[in-house]
Amino acid sequence: MRRAGALPPGLAGRLDERLSAADADLAAAAAPVGGRQPVHTAYVPADAFSAGTAAEWGEVALAALRAHGDVLASLGVTEAIVDRVAAKLEREPVEDLRVDFEDGYGRRPDDEEDAAAVRVGEELRHPATTGCGIRIKSFEPSTRARALRTLDLLLSACGRVPEGFVVTLPKVTGPEQVQAVRDVCEAVDESVGGAPLRFELQVETPEAVARMDQIAAAAGPRCAGLHYGTYDYSTALGVGAPHQSLDHPVADHAKAVMQVAAAVTGLRVVDGSSNVLPVGGRGAVREAWRLHLRLVRRSLERGIYQGWDLHPSQLVSRYAATFAFYREGLAVSGARLRAYVRRSTGGVLDEPATARSLAGYLLRGLDSGALDEPEVAAASGLYRERLEALTT
Predict the structure, then answer these.
(1) In 3D, which of 190, 111, 106, 196 has the Cα closest to residue 149?
(2) What is the pLDDT of residues 251-269, one digit of tens each?
(3) Do the Cβ atoms of 255 and 228 come closer than 8 Å?
(4) Which end of the chain is more exposed for a tag (fewer CB within 10 A), N or C?
(5) Dihedrals φ, ψ of 344, to 5°?
(6) CA dihedral angle for residue 383, residue 386, residue 388, residue 392, rounded to 10 degrees
(7) pLDDT in tens, 130-186
(8) Which helix (DSSP H) or strand (DSSP E) does residue 127 occupy?
(9) Is the pTM above the cut of 0.85?
């Protein structure tokens, strides 16, 4: 064997010493959030929420689908997708739900919000959705005490932290507020039974985007994700109301910053909402669904897999866009993954990182209900366990 001599002896040891701190930081980095990610979060004002809200949303969405199914067809949604959407709305119309005590609820007399917090806590003793939670008011000085009181009353009435429960902190401006909400969660763990309390951060201020790396670094493993706030952020940057949208350049910039910070710290990024609702006459419903289909698809293509919904009929376009996204890519993704595993050559030479992406894509499709395991196995030659192994 030829003797190496171009590099001086002991160099590897010196590099280990020089990079030890960086190696420790990498080892301590938060692992990516595991498990199924919902495709949406439904936001419901506290005064409009009840234990039957999820079922009611499903009924309204199904009625809209039945009344305007031909509208979807005119927008390019296939009959097979429509059937799958209908089945989803019957089986699990709402995957994740937040009861809103902030902007959607507004400022109310304290006794009124106290009563609402107690009532919602009682309703959430047995959540009807896989994911649930509340959006409290911000930790700005004028609303901080009110936010804490609402959370306290609600969890006291609930008697425990329900499984899958998350508290959303809006209008975050810096890592100090993130540490504060972590302190709140730890205090709740000490006094309330049930699951550990988790939180998510709403990114809707210029200060938050400017300090995104610090905010994400402070979040820690309790943080369930970073949620983009469409309208507060757009307004803060001076974007006029007619032009505020998920696809505005300022929105794209903010979400790109969030995605970078989230990738470093293992968090999820969640898109905001569209306030153009599919209500009214046939033409209005068609335009709202057309817009929402495009926006949901656009976000999926950009690696943002969850977003807010504000109205039951948005579930139709949410699931239609999501199911089409995964079904249209099943054959190609499955074939590429099969070729990668078999190490066979084809028109695309994929690397391990791309294989992780392909496996993650198929798993998301399975979790969303867009794909079924037998068809994924037929396309890729792999079942869920092997797909999950490829993503680690």
Answers:
(1) 111
(2) 999 999 999 999 999 999 9
(3) yes
(4) N
(5) -95, 155
(6) -160
(7) 999 999 999 999 999 999 999 999 999 999 999 999 999 999 999 999 999 999 999
(8) none
(9) yes
